[in-house]
Amino acid sequence: MTYTLKAAHLYGDLMNTYGDIGNILAMRYYAQAVDATIDVDLVSLDDTFDPKKYDFVLFGGGQDYEQTIVSKDLQTKKAALTDYIEAGGPFLAICGGFQMLGHYYIGAHGEKIAGIGALDHYTLSQDNNRFIGNITIKNAETGQTYYGFENHNGTTFLGEGERPLGEVEQGNGNNGQDKSEGVIYKNTFGSYFHGPILARNEALAKRILKLALQRKYPDADFSALDTLNEDLTKNVQVKP
Amino acid sequence: MSINSILATWTGKSAYWFLHTFRGGGSSLPGKLALKLDPAILKHLARNYDVIVITGTNGKTLTTALTVKVLREQYPDILTNPSGSNMKQGIVTTFLTAPKAHQKPLAVLEVDEANVIMVTKYITPKAFVFTNIFRDQMDRYGEIYTTYQKILDGVALAPEATIIANGDLPLFNSKQLPNPILYYGFDYQPDGDEHAPANTDGLLCPNCQHILHYRSRTYSNMGKYFCPNCGFERPQLTYKLNALTAMTPTSSDFEINGQAMHLNIGGQYNIYNALAAYAVGRFMDVRPAKIAHALSDNDEQVFGRQEIFHVGDKDVTLILVKNPVGLNQVLQMISTDERPFSFAALLNANYADGIDTSWIWDGDFEQLPGLKVPAYISGGERYKDITFRLKVAGVPTDKLTIVPDLTNMTAEIQKLPTKQVYVVATYTAMLQLRKQLASQGIIDGGMA
């Protein structure tokens, strides 16, 4: 492979509750088209996060208990992660990971759990309710439609300087009130979408992949990704 | 005996008789009717029984069936609930329709995790068996800690019952309980020091919240775990698998506490089920040689979840999958087949399948292209998701056929280049395929 991206799977051993690793697998699949590959490091409890080392970061969702442990350890990586995000490092944060990039979220027992405040949102909880089901949103900038599955109790409210990843067309999104879903801040993308989001949304996968590739290899041409169109049925027999 | 419970029993039995005679079925309605008249009906119905409750995420049905086989070596009267009737109504129906028993009969009940408390409110079991707790269709069940707590809420009503638990699962060693506990597990490998793969659930030490290590690991987060930070470790095992001599897709040979065993079903996960059945057998004083005899019996009815049928000259093994741990175990089992085989994955996302398909990304499909698999089929209502999953795993497109409509499956199976065919399917995809097979006379109708 000509190009190699280095990815950090943040707390992948604690925060991978809904196949979040599929996001990296899907990106790696599309990367083949431009002769690129992705190496993955697990960066977990007591590990150091080096913002200069990585071209992409995935931070998935976890179970309530694991998230409380991660929240504490995450504070030790706060400065490094904030540096990475502010420097425009491509970052995908899903569900609990999305919540923890913000100021705080409310845990399963009503306790306020600290995020790192790298992004300006906060997350409350609903009483005895979860948003569960299929969800569709539209990204304002590109007009692209994204499909996913949401399953969350938290209701997230975006702050100044944060744009939603999309406007809810079907489903609940960040909070069930303001039609926003997810977040975009610099090159950081947050979402409640499982599915995983990049496995089900080729356009977004390629967008983030291209960001990462161009950031590391500014002189290389990755425009092949723009015209790449995954056709499931290409060279495959289909018996409708 | 109260008037209510007599009336409730009579109503339930009549409903069963009616359904059984005129409709050829009826597993939960009689229980439902009886419960309406007397919510405490179980107390009355089960009053003479010694009850063993089997619960956990995976392996309940087979563990229950194997336990019944083991105990039958020594105890003539054993009542058990049919697969799937593991919630309150089904359990009441099981007791309502029990044949008249002599002396003190045994009941071996598969109980849904959240329904343990529905049972222990009215019955004090002699023993509980905890098979495992894994992530399982979280849109329905929730997280592993919540699931375990639900079970423990039920167990709290029976603090003297013995718990027979999978000792290889850290979760089952995470809470101090008043009950006597016996552990079973795998203990045949030399000690090393390894981590579980990153996308494994339940890796935190319950004492100090560091990541657990393993001296040896079987699968998922199970094995001889220990915490390098605080010394938390796997408890002493009473029942040990001390040798694993052979594994094929259809059988396993191993030793438990020095007793050689042969099991006519493949898969490491089924060895855990056999270990659990062995543990209950020993707990109930069945001799090891008798247990070995019971387990080696080739009983098709017991092993129904791994169904083999024939389409033309193909031998097709149909296996239900519903969560990543189960799926990975099935893939591991298939990989022990030395013959070339074709592989089909059928994915639906209806309520009974789990409406979130994300879990397929935690399945280790990546191992398939390294095996002798000349042809693949992807299909089901969510064929796009499973097809893309297989492509990402490295399945070559020229070996892949997409079959969105499962009514075409039998025709496609016949075209496959190998005699051996493995089909993994989610619940409703399996039902649709079985319906198709039944309509063509390949299998008998109904669900196994």
TrEMBL record, chain A:
Keywords: Cell shape, Cell wall biogenesis/degradation, Glutamine amidotransferase, Hydrolase, Ligase, Peptidoglycan synthesis. InterPro entries: Class_I_gatase-like, CobQ_GATase1, GATase_3, Lipid_II_synth_GatD. Its EC number is 6.3.5.13, 3.5.1.2. The active site is at C95, H194. The keyword Amino-acid biosynthesis does not apply. It catalyses: beta-D-GlcNAc-(1->4)-Mur2Ac(oyl-L-Ala-gamma-D-Glu-L-Lys-D-Ala-D-Ala)-di-trans,octa-cis-undecaprenyl diphosphate + L-glutamine + ATP + H2O = beta-D-GlcNAc-(1->4)-Mur2Ac(oyl-L-Ala-D-isoglutaminyl-L-Lys-D-Ala-D-Ala)-di-trans,octa-cis-undecaprenyl diphosphate + L-glutamate + ADP + phosphate + H(+); L-glutamine + H2O = L-glutamate + NH4(+). CDD domains: GATase1_CobQ (cd01750). Pathway: Cell wall biogenesis; peptidoglycan biosynthesis. It comes from the Bacteria. Residues 8-201 form the CobB/CobQ-like glutamine amidotransferase domain. Substrate binds at R130. The keyword Ligase applies. Gene3D superfamilies: 3.40.50.880. The lipid II isoglutaminyl synthase complex catalyzes the formation of alpha-D-isoglutamine in the cell wall lipid II stem peptide. The GatD subunit catalyzes the hydrolysis of glutamine to glutamate and ammonia. The resulting ammonia molecule is channeled to the active site of MurT. Belongs to the CobB/CobQ family. GatD subfamily. Forms a heterodimer with MurT. This is Lipid II isoglutaminyl synthase (glutamine-hydrolyzing) subunit GatD. It comes from Lactiplantibacillus daowaiensis.
From TrEMBL, chain B:
Keywords: ATP-binding, Cell shape, Cell wall biogenesis/degradation, Ligase, Metal-binding, Nucleotide-binding, Peptidoglycan synthesis, Zinc. GO terms for molecular function: ligase activity. Signal peptide: none annotated. Zn(2+) binds at C205, C208, C227, C230. Its EC number is 6.3.5.13. The keyword Secreted does not apply. Belongs to the MurCDEF family. MurT subfamily. Pfam families: Mur_ligase_M (PF08245), MurT_C (PF08353). Pathway: Cell wall biogenesis; peptidoglycan biosynthesis. Gene3D superfamilies: Mur-like, catalytic domain (3.40.1190.10). This is Lipid II isoglutaminyl synthase (glutamine-hydrolyzing) subunit MurT. It catalyses: beta-D-GlcNAc-(1->4)-Mur2Ac(oyl-L-Ala-gamma-D-Glu-L-Lys-D-Ala-D-Ala)-di-trans,octa-cis-undecaprenyl diphosphate + L-glutamine + ATP + H2O = beta-D-GlcNAc-(1->4)-Mur2Ac(oyl-L-Ala-D-isoglutaminyl-L-Lys-D-Ala-D-Ala)-di-trans,octa-cis-undecaprenyl diphosphate + L-glutamate + ADP + phosphate + H(+); beta-D-GlcNAc-(1->4)-Mur2Ac(oyl-L-Ala-gamma-D-Glu-L-Lys-D-Ala-D-Ala)-di-trans,octa-cis-undecaprenyl diphosphate + ATP = beta-D-GlcNAc-(1->4)-Mur2Ac(oyl-L-Ala-gamma-D-O-P-Glu-L-Lys-D-Ala-D-Ala)-di-trans,octa-cis-undecaprenyl diphosphate + ADP; beta-D-GlcNAc-(1->4)-Mur2Ac(oyl-L-Ala-gamma-D-O-P-Glu-L-Lys-D-Ala-D-Ala)-di-trans,octa-cis-undecaprenyl diphosphate + NH4(+) = beta-D-GlcNAc-(1->4)-Mur2Ac(oyl-L-Ala-D-isoglutaminyl-L-Lys-D-Ala-D-Ala)-di-trans,octa-cis-undecaprenyl diphosphate + phosphate + H(+). Forms a heterodimer with GatD. Residues 54-170 form the Mur ligase central domain. The active site is at D356. The keyword Hydrolase does not apply.
